[in-house]
Amino acid sequence: MKRIFTLFMLIVSVVVVSQAQNATFSWFLSGGGATGSDRSADVVTDAIGNIFTANTFLNSVAFNGATFTGSAKGSGANFDNSLLITKISPLKVTLWSIYSNVGTVTPTSLATTPNGDLIVTGTIRPVVGGATTNANIIDAVGTVTTFSSLLSSTTIVQSFVAKFNSNGVLQWVKELNSGAAKDKSVSANALAADASGNVYITGNFGSSVILPGSSPVTLTTTNTTQAAFIAKLDGTTGNEIWHKASTGGIVSEVLTALTIGVDGYLYAAGDFKNNATAPIAITFGDKTFTPSIGADLTLMKIDTEGNMVYLQQRPSVTSVTARDIRVKDITTKGNLVFVAGSFVGIDGGIQFTGGNLSSTTSSLNGFIAAFNITDGTDNWHKGIFSPAIVEINGIVVGSSGRLFAFGYHYNKLGTNAAGDVDFGNGFLLTDATNTLGDLFLASYLPTVGTTSEVHLVGKGTGSEASNSLCSFGPNLYLLGIYNSSPITFENTLTSSTLGSFDFFLVNYAVPVVIDGNPTHTIQVPVIVNDNANRQIVVKDARGIESASLVDVTGRNIHMFKNSSDILNINTQGLSQGVYVLLLTTSDKQTTSRRIIIQ
To answer: In whole angstroms, how far apart are CA 11 and each of 539, 562, 594, 596?
Structure first.
C-alpha cells in the first residue's frame, strides 16, 4: 500500500491517524460584472500549485484584483460572452490573465504540461447581430490573435486550441473548423497533455472538421448531427500527429471527457445513441460496434499511437451524460478508471454488469462508475438521487486517497414534493427549500465506492451550478457559478452577485488518509524554518523525493532533490516575504506549506 505524506508543524515525527478526516472549507473568490451572466468552464493546477481558471463574462468583469472589458453585447442575450483565463498563485495572487474583446470566445477545457505551459480549447463565433465576423484572444503581454470569416449564428460555432507558456505568452494557436464557409459546427470538449507535452483533444462535428497541420487533415461523416473525434497534436507546433473519428450515420456520437492515465494511456468517455428504427454499426478508429437506441455510456482506452485497446458500452434506455473521467493507481485492487455525470434512470437506468443503476424519478440523477483499467470491466457503480435533479460535473482523486465529486442538486422541481438527496451509506442532504440548484461536495472510498462525507458547499435562494474540480496536494479547487444574492458558502461566508450570474472559486483542505483506510501509522516530516541561519530544515524526509520553493508570484525559485533523512534548504539571498514550500513524495504525492522568510 502506498504511503502518503502530509505537512504539519509537529514536535514528533510519528503520528497515528485514528479516523478519516473530512475536507475543510478554506476560502472563496468570486468574479463577474455588473450586468449579464458570467460563466465558468474549467480549473486546473500546474506542477508547483498555481491555479488556472477559465471563465466567460458579458461586457466587463472584475476578478481577484483585475478588471477587463470584453466585446460589445449583441442580440444573442447571454450567449455573447468574452473569454477570461486567470493564473493565480498558491497564495491567491493573480499572476496574469488572458481575455478576449471581439466576438464570442467560450473556453471548454484547460490542461497544463509538466513544464508549466497552459493548453486551452474552446469555441469561437462572432457576436450575434454585431457588425463583425471576427473573434480574438489577447495573451498576457497584449498579443492579439484574430479569428476571421466566422458565420454569425447562435447555433454554429468553430473551435480553437492554443498553447501559452508559463508567463501567459502565446506559443501557437490553431483553429478547428468546418471549411472555408465555416457553416457547420465544430466543438471542442476536453483536453489532456502527456509527460512529453503532446496535446490530446476530443470534440464533435456535424459533417466535417479540419485538423491543423502543414497539410491540414479533413475528416468527414455521413452524420449531420454529431460525430466524435480524438486527435493528438504536437506540443511544439500544434500540428496533428494522428486522429480517430466515428463514421457517423446514427443520431449522435459524443465524447465529453478525456484524461491521461497513470499508465500513459488515453481514456475518453461519452455517449453514443443509435437510430430507433434501423440501428446500424459504426466504426471509431479500428473498433466497430453498434450503440443502442437509448444512449450508451461509452468508455475508450487508446494508446499513444492511436490504437484502440478497448471500447466498453453500458446501455441506457433514456439518456446518460459523462462529465468527467479520472484514473487512480490503487495498489490493493489494481488501477481504476472513474467516470461521472448524470443519467435518467426511471426506464431502467444504466445497465452495468453488477446490476442496473436506476431510480424512481424521471429527472436527472448523478452517477459515478469505476472500471478496471486493464480491460474496462465493471468494478463498482453508485448513484446520487433526489426528488428533482442531481448532476456531477467534476471528480478527482485527492492526495488523501479519496475520490471527490462536485455537483449541484435540486431537492424540489415543479410539483414534485421536496425530499432529501441520497448519497448512499446513510448520507442524506436535507435542503428542502432548494428549488433552483445548490452545490455539494462528496467523497468516496475509491476501492469500493463507500460514501465518506457530504458538504453543502453553496446555498442561496437563486440558482447555483458546478463546473469543474481539481486538486493539488491537500487542496481541492471547485469552480462554478451562482446567482443567489447572497450565497452562503459552507454556512460560513457569504457573497452577493454583481449581475445575474457570477462565477466562483472555492478551496477546501483535505487531511491525509491512505486509500480510505482510517487507521495508519505514518511518518510525518518535521519542518523547521530557521530564519536565524537562513535555512529550512525538513526532518524525517526519507519519503520526500524533491522540494520546490515558490514565491508569491508563483515562480519556482529553487528546486531540490533529496536522498537523505534530512533535507536542508538554503534561503540565503532570498528577499523577505511569503513563500510556498512544495514537497513531492516518491509516489508523486505533492503537498504544500506556507513559509515566511524574515
So the answer is: 11, 22, 17, 19
Q: Give the mean pLDDT of 82-89.
A: 97
| Residue 534 falls in which region: left (phi positive, over 0), alpha (psi -120 to 50) or beta | left
Whether the per-residue pLDDT at 19 is higher than 70: the answer is no
Contacts with 480 (C-beta within 8 Å, 6 or more apart), sequence order: 40, 393, 406, 408, 439, 458, 464, 465, 466, 467, 468, 503, 504, 506
Cα angle at 574 between 571 and 578, to 5 degrees?
A: 95
Residue 270 carries which side chain, given as an amino acid letter?
Answer: G
Question: How many angstroms from the chain centroid is the CA of residue 483?
Answer: 22
Q: Give the integer Cα–Cα distance in Å for 402 and 4.
A: 12
> Quick one: average pLDDT of 60-64?
94
Give the amino acid at 275: N
What is the architecture, at CATH level 2, of domain 520-597? Sandwich (2.60)
Find the mean pLDDT for residues 430-455. Answer: 92
Q: Which amino acid is at 300?
A: M
Cα Rg, the chain, nearest whole Å: 24
Rounded Cα distance, 338 and 198, in Å: 23
Lateral strand order in the sheet of 577-585: 556-561, 544-550, 577-585, 590-597
Torsion sign, CA atoms 124, 127, 128, 132: negative
pLDDT tens for each residue of 141-159: 999 999 999 987 778 899 9
Instruction: Show Cβ contacts of residue 460 under 8 Å, excluding neighbours closer than 6 positions.
Output: 438, 482, 483, 484, 485, 486, 487, 488
* Whether residue 11 has pLDDT greater than 60: no
Report how far Cα 32 is from the mean position of its chain's Cα atoms.
20
Strand residues in 126-261 grouped as ranges (E): 135-138, 144-147, 158-164, 170-176, 186-193, 199-205, 208-211, 217-220, 227-233, 240-245, 252-260
Nearest to 228 by CA among 196, 203, 261, 193: 203
String of DSSP letters for 109-136: EEEE-TTS-EEEEEEEEPPTT-S-S-EE
The grid coordinates of residue 570 equal 538554503
Q: How many CB atoms lie within 10 A of CB 532?
A: 6
The sheet carrying 144-147 orders its strands as 39-45, 51-57, 82-88, 94-99, 135-138, 144-147
Residues across the chain: 598
What is the rounded CA–CA span in Å between residue 313 and residue 300?
9
> How far separated are the first and last CA of the chain, in Å rounded?
40
